[in-house]
Amino acid sequence: MIASLKLAALGLLLCVCSGLQHNLVLEDEEDQPVVQASKSGSLWPLPQKVLISQVPFKLIGSSFRFVDAKDSSAGASCSLLQDAYRRYYEYMFGSSKRQGQARSRKPGRSELTELQVRITSPDSDCDGYPGITSDESYELSVDQPFAILKAPTVWGALHGLETFSQLLYEDEYGAKSINSTAISDFPRFAHRGILLDSSRHFLPVKVILANLETMAMNKFNVFHWHIVDDPSFPYLSRTFPQLSQKGAYHPYTHVYTPADVKMVIEFARLRGIRVVPEFDTPGHTQSWGKGQADLLTPCYSGSEPSGAFGPVNPILNTTYDFMKQFFAEISSVFPDAYVHLGGDEVDFSCWKSNPDITKFMAQQGFGQDYSKLESFYIQKLLDIVASTKKGYMIWQEVFDNGVKLGPDTVVHVWIGSGSNEEMSKVTSAGYQTILSAPWYLDYISYAQDWQKYYKAEPLNFNGTQKQYQEEMANITSSGYQTLLSTPWYLNRISYGQDWMVAYKADPQDFKGTEAQKKLVIGGEACLWGEYVDATNLTPRLWPRASAVAERLWSAKNVTDINDAFNRLSMHRCRMVERGIPAEPLFSSYCRHEYRGI
Amino acid sequence: MIASLKLAALGLLLCVCSGLQHNLVLEDEEDQPVVQASKSGSLWPLPQKVLISQVPFKLIGSSFRFVDAKDSSAGASCSLLQDAYRRYYEYMFGSSKRQGQARSRKPGRSELTELQVRITSPDSDCDGYPGITSDESYELSVDQPFAILKAPTVWGALHGLETFSQLLYEDEYGAKSINSTAISDFPRFAHRGILLDSSRHFLPVKVILANLETMAMNKFNVFHWHIVDDPSFPYLSRTFPQLSQKGAYHPYTHVYTPADVKMVIEFARLRGIRVVPEFDTPGHTQSWGKGQADLLTPCYSGSEPSGAFGPVNPILNTTYDFMKQFFAEISSVFPDAYVHLGGDEVDFSCWKSNPDITKFMAQQGFGQDYSKLESFYIQKLLDIVASTKKGYMIWQEVFDNGVKLGPDTVVHVWIGSGSNEEMSKVTSAGYQTILSAPWYLDYISYAQDWQKYYKAEPLNFNGTQKQYQEEMANITSSGYQTLLSTPWYLNRISYGQDWMVAYKADPQDFKGTEAQKKLVIGGEACLWGEYVDATNLTPRLWPRASAVAERLWSAKNVTDINDAFNRLSMHRCRMVERGIPAEPLFSSYCRHEYRGI
């Protein structure tokens, strides 16, 4: 046994993706990568610090246990953890029954029988919801007499369980093994999301759950649910049931009932995933108009209404009455602290055609600038949503149009061209931001486009020095002492909770860049729905989104594309083995191919 | 009932893809097509002649029957037909049990209770295999007292059953209905194929069968099984079992046993589909070398073997002994009259490095022209295969290199650039050809690429007049009588069965173009395996390949892209309803979405 340690340590890394008795010949084009063993095994995304030794332990399904450590703040009563133990046990050992006999068997010396899980914070957050400030860190030690997983909260513990399961491999005799390992891990970015669009095609709940499951395998923590849009309104609102009755593709078979939504949220919570719903207005609302009279702007053809409708009608009080009630419901249905309010791609042509809008523009002194009308609407909407105690995310146009935003607003950068400049602008204005521009996964192309997503870097923009910061840098570099007041001229007031801007200013931060980069809280891979539905969504998303997962979780210098290819090849086979039809990276095979069609 | 006929006739066409009680709003981009009713309903591919009236009949699962006509040459003993009845009954009515009570119910006046199926040729071909010369035509009349399907052979009957099932719709009350209809149909091209590649990724038999099933729904009739290639050799040969033992990704889980191959062939036969296996040599053979010593050329690095191997070694007698035995097996395992012998993309660098090859080149007087060595090999291989009484297909390079081909050879045109010129060259040399160049479905791109495949036209090349044909045209256009001898100078001999060339020459055919275009016998959609396996193959293939299906079956002037969009949208929902994860064309929905993930 001891003599074959080295071999075992290496063999295991190959074994997920290689077969028996023969070498791999995977490429038929010379410039293509070859699957090889990575020193980090099949870990994905790569932990911040990881040390895998060459000492293997055996794991046997009949005797292995997850155990709540005695001093853990979450124990048997924490159903989130108990549920996770069951899930990972099944991933690791399959769903085969424990053999009763084996329970009295004395474990062998090189056997690992226990993973102790210790939640270290007084509040484990077991019954809470994950949030943007949740601590997701964990430490994992695999050693004798037992492995230990320590995490301040259950959210870190979930990630640690995933990592633990990824350390498992089969040795050359098919025995489940794990090497002595030390890992210390935390995410680089707090917001790591996937956008799915259930309007252009309805996504059965089963499909959403399968993808939440897969998100957890990739340490994603935000499901951005672009739930309604022009083509259909599948959200069944208790307050306005006619929205889906009239606006869904079908009022029964193509809607999300309150029970469905609840199930999605709880399923996500159990996996450490936030559900941020998007109700995009004033554009992208054609489907809203079917069930809510007067909500949309009637378009005119000459002096007569054409019968078509444009964006939400921003000049009627009824619009805001509706939004108040609607978002009151949304804020109570969705527990997350954020709602995504959209605000992208507003087409002004219908507004321009409508004589009542024209009159209103004149009254307000907007001139011909319809972005002012858009801002007028959004401003009122933001106030409504703020009154529900929710924060909001918005697409970048809202920021670009100069709408006054609350200081905790998250600006979502999506436009491909100039996204670096946009990131720079948004953060120099002091707003938090998330990046999606390089990660529009609905756009497909031949071959290994995951590499393109992998190489995108959210912090590759130039920061903007504030003038006073440059001055501070000059003064101190000349050796003088200095005192700062610029960010604290409290006679200057601005909209919203400006105390936070004052609070965040750091007299020692002379480099705008660094301060700005702290405002980049993450990113999202977006899979818009024009060309995907239940038939093809899952293989189109995975493992392409996995590339984004590692970019957002792992350290900035984790950029070795060959090592990534090797680990990701094995990670995708693991997803397949867990029942997820994740598509192949290139010619090769998985020991257990996907069973389905 | 009568009053609502028109509505019913229209409603039905919408119903496959639309829901209840609301209009369709499918597009959010103005230049995108909208799903509308086509006057041809959901028929795909469009039959040659079709007349759908507005007179509907009801179909009731409990009383509807497929009946063999009394004067049919295939009756209850034809299990191919009986199997097809069962299959189409299930497609049409689901697998719900017949209700015993209903059997004694007297059918209503507007009810259609029977489709009579009459095979008109003395030989129905029920127990045969479909072939390139099979008659696939059929005539379908849907009327009272029963519908009639007439076809010379079972192959036409299968297509007719598919068409019949496509005429079914649900009226506004959900009742299954069919309109009085007259159809006369036959394929434009005899060879309508799909290439699947089971070497770059192993495709479980289940996946292959599901795609054969879907091919039948699209009237494809050739499964081109690119079964082995560089990465793996999953074909389990009885004669040389070591080929898959050593060359497959895994010797047990990633091979096709003789029983698997038999099952695939029979499953295909029952659906009117030929199975043409490809054993590509001398290149693309890395996996062959693992189980067959000395088959591949040892590459040299300087004066020493490098350990790597190149194409099949063409200078050893053992190579040809092997090929003789191997193709003897292949010719008995695969019943089709054709074998695809590959012959594409031979890399000369390894041959160039090998001193024995260099010596052989000199002995043969090949100079530095390695394509002569390639032809030397292929020529011998063709002789071997011809001796097994099989015809062969080859990739275009074999023709380009000037190899002498038997007159019944099918040249497979695949290289994208210059494919029109290639079609012209191949056919002016008198060879049959099939086209794949515009239909490499492994190449993907954003949005509706099916339109690109749909617009490709196999006969869009310029013909080459033979000199004597120009002369004939000149003479006759001047009003003189003439007599032809040029193609029949029998003192001029050439390799192979040149009597066929003589036989085919038509003294009345002055237009090289027309004669050439008759030599285009069809095309194939190719889904190479680098980036597809069981996880994503089916939705990637369908409905994109359906575009090719209509191009190869329907009349040349069926080119209305909007009508195609409408019919194809409904056809794809029908595939989904039959359990096939065919991906969406654009934002929209199916009444019954795919159930799976």
TrEMBL record, chains A, B:
Residues 1-19 form the signal peptide. Residues 189-555 form the Glycoside hydrolase family 20 catalytic domain. Residues 43-167 form the Beta-hexosaminidase eukaryotic type N-terminal domain. It comes from the Eukaryota. This is Beta-hexosaminidase. Hydrolyzes the non-reducing end N-acetyl-D-hexosamine and/or sulfated N-acetyl-D-hexosamine of glycoconjugates, such as the oligosaccharide moieties from proteins and neutral glycolipids, or from certain mucopolysaccharides. The isozyme B does not hydrolyze each of these substrates, however hydrolyzes efficiently neutral oligosaccharide. Only the isozyme A is responsible for the degradation of GM2 gangliosides in the presence of GM2A. During fertilization is responsible, at least in part, for the zona block to polyspermy. There are 3 forms of beta-hexosaminidase: hexosaminidase A is a heterodimer composed of one subunit alpha and one subunit beta (chain A and B); hexosaminidase B is a homodimer of two beta subunits (two chains A and B); hexosaminidase S is a homodimer of two alpha subunits. The composition of the dimer (isozyme A versus isozyme S) has a significant effect on the substrate specificity of the alpha subunit active site. One of its GO terms (molecular function) is beta-N-acetylhexosaminidase activity. The active site is at 345 (proton donor). Keywords: Cytoplasmic vesicle, Disulfide bond, Glycoprotein, Glycosidase, Hydrolase, Lipid metabolism, Lysosome, Signal. PANTHER family: BETA-HEXOSAMINIDASE (PTHR22600), BETA-HEXOSAMINIDASE SUBUNIT BETA (PTHR22600:SF38). One of its GO terms (biological process) is carbohydrate metabolic process. InterPro entries: Beta_hexosaminidase_sua/sub (IPR025705), GH (IPR017853), Glyco_hydro_20_cat (IPR015883), Hex-like_dom2 (IPR029018), HEX_eukaryotic_N (IPR029019). Its EC number is 3.2.1.52. It catalyses: N-acetyl-beta-D-6-sulfogalactosaminyl-(1->4)-alpha-L-iduronyl-(1->3)-N-acetyl-D-6-sulfogalactosamine + H2O = alpha-L-iduronyl-(1->3)-N-acetyl-D-6-sulfogalactosamine + N-acetyl-D-6-sulfogalactosamine; Hydrolysis of terminal non-reducing N-acetyl-D-hexosamine residues in N-acetyl-beta-D-hexosaminides; a ganglioside GM2 + H2O = a ganglioside GM3 + N-acetyl-beta-D-galactosamine; N-acetyl-beta-D-galactosaminyl-(1->4)-beta-D-3-sulfogalactosyl-(1->4)-beta-D-glucosyl-(1<->1')-ceramide + H2O = a beta-D-3-sulfogalactosyl-(1->4)-beta-D-glucosyl-(1<->1')-ceramide + N-acetyl-beta-D-galactosamine. Disulfide bonds join 78-126, 299-350, 573-590. Belongs to the glycosyl hydrolase 20 family. It is found in: Cytoplasmic vesicle, Secretory vesicle, Cortical granule; Lysosome. GO terms for cellular component: cortical granule; lysosome; membrane.
